[in-house]
Amino acid sequence: MGKLLIVGTVAFDAIETPFGKTDKILGGAATFIGLAASQFDVDAAIVSVVGDDLPYEYLQFLADKNIDISAIEIVKGGKTFFWSGKYRNDLNTRDTISTELNVLADFNPVVPENYKNSEVVMLGNLHPSIQMSVINQMEKRPKLIVLDTMNYWMNNTSEELKEVIKHTDIITINDEEARQLTNEYSLVKAAAQIHTMGPKYVVIKKGEHGALLFHNDNIFFAPALPLEEVFDPTGAGDTFAGGFVGYLSETENESFNNLKNAVIHGSNLASFCVERFGTERMANLKKEEVERRLHQFRELTQFDIQLQ
Question: Residue 241 burial (CB < 10 Å; 0-12/13-18/19+)?
């Protein structure tokens, strides 16, 4: 069983889409990454911070999924990170209504002793200085350091972010972020430039249009599964990342071909996440459902091309 260390937010979200709206519900990058990774045979722990306003049942819910929550700091009298947003009719664009850092503003991550030797580290979307702090606490270099980031950090902490990127093996970002990071419109050129910054592998997420995996001159494309119902895209990218690193942790194989499988497993799990609000769909996801949809992915993508 591979060891996986997840660093990211455990948070409150309030979401509005064309299909409805929620009050404060459980969200956060580490939450979605952890739930997706729990579908695999991995020993996973979350490093995060919350206020004592977060119901303990939310943390127990993660623990019940065999996720180690001992490194989730609970700040007495503090308030948990909160994000609220409204999605437009196409579900690809959203407006942020509110972002309240709260206890996250002073977060100083502490990696548990028994996870300082984790083979895979997933750095969820956070301030680069927090991500770097975690890297520096590892007792030896992990086999894989996977980074997720966003345009906010590119705009505000560019140099710190580039320092973290130097230390990573895999970066997962969306197409808009890849273009911003490199000033290249072509995603092939953007990936090539990101390679020069440090990562061996570049994963560029394209939402409902799938994901691209780059390694030197090798390119792999995985489509997103066409779905009848999409309620809430919140957490889909983090769920993708969780499925991706969960599969890599379980298989302990860093080859390009195995990363192709990891991308498919990530895309597969993300397709469930969007079917309900927040974590609702991932909370009760069964192995049989996951397997059945993987077969759908295979039918969608595999055929023999007849060459003349």
Answer: buried
Structure tokens at 201: 């592998």
Nearest CA to 190 among 199, 145, 243? 199
Question: What pTM did the predictor assign?
Answer: 0.96
For residue 25, what are the β-bridge partners? Answer: 13
Residue 80, both tokens: 């948990």
Nearest to 96 by CA among 110, 84, 109: 84
CA 256 – CA 155 distance, rounded (Å) = 31
Cα 101 to Cα 107: distance, rounded to the nearest angstrom: 10
DSSP secondary structure string, 174-216? EHHHHHHHHT-SSHHHHHHHHHHHS-SEEEEE-GGG-EEEEET
Give me the amino acid identity at 160.
E
Please give the backbone phi and psi of residue 170, each rounded to the nearest 5 degrees, phi first. -135, 135
Average pLDDT for consecutive 10-residue bins of the chain (308 residues)? 94 94 96 98 98 97 97 98 91 87 95 97 96 97 96 93 97 95 97 97 92 96 86 93 98 96 96 94 95 92 82
Measured in degrees and rounded to the nearest 5, phi and psi for residue 14 equal -130, 120
The three-class DSSP label of residue 53 is: coil
CA 187, CA 234: separation in Å to the nearest integer?
24
> What type of residue is 129?
S
Residue 116, number of CB atoms within 10 A of its CB? 15
Q: What 3-state DSSP class applies to 281?
A: helix
Single-letter amino acid, residue 182: T
DSSP 160: H
pLDDT of residue 26: 97
